[in-house]
Amino acid sequence: MIGGTIAAMTGNPTVQRFPIELGSRSRPLLRVLFxxxxxxxxxxxxxxxxxxxxxxxxxxxLSNVVSWRIExxxxxxxxIGIRRSIRHGDFTFGGxxxxxxxxxxxxxxxxxxxxxxxxxxxxxxPEAFTxxxxxxxxxxxxxxxxxx
Length: 148
What we know:
With 148 residues, the protein is α+β, with helices and mostly antiparallel strands. The protein has helices at residues 3-6, 27-34, 76-79, 126-135; strands spanning 16-19, 41-45, 48-53, 56-61, 65-71, 81-84, 91-94, 100-111, 114-121, 140-142. 18% of the residues lie in helices and 40% in strands. The strands form two sheets. The protein has a six-stranded mixed β-sheet with strand order 6-7-9-8-5-10. A four-stranded antiparallel β-sheet has the order 1-2-3-4. A hairpin with a 6-residue loop joins strand 6 (81-84) and strand 7. It starts with a helix and ends in a 6-residue tail after the last strand.
């Protein structure tokens, strides 16, 4: 499903919604630990970028997003859930280990009592998601690799 098709679900035709992919085996764990359900796992792109993943929520003006990067796949144990990198403070809203998109922010974004410099989201259609970002003038790259 592409983001443009989902715009009507947001109630605002200028907002495009991209569901976060939830792996079938990780769904029960995500629901119990993080409150994640399909209707609470998405990224909206409009004037703002808004990401919701169960109990997790982050919102910033789209103008604060300076770049994107498609990455992955990752090891399951390091990718699933709401995560915060100890080293850099990045956040992950991850429903699958298959890969996702890193969003880098000009200014760190307040989220869940932290200031977040970057966010990883495992959107269902990273190509459509990043095409919308590119069309909005945000540069990026596809840096996926094979998991060895």
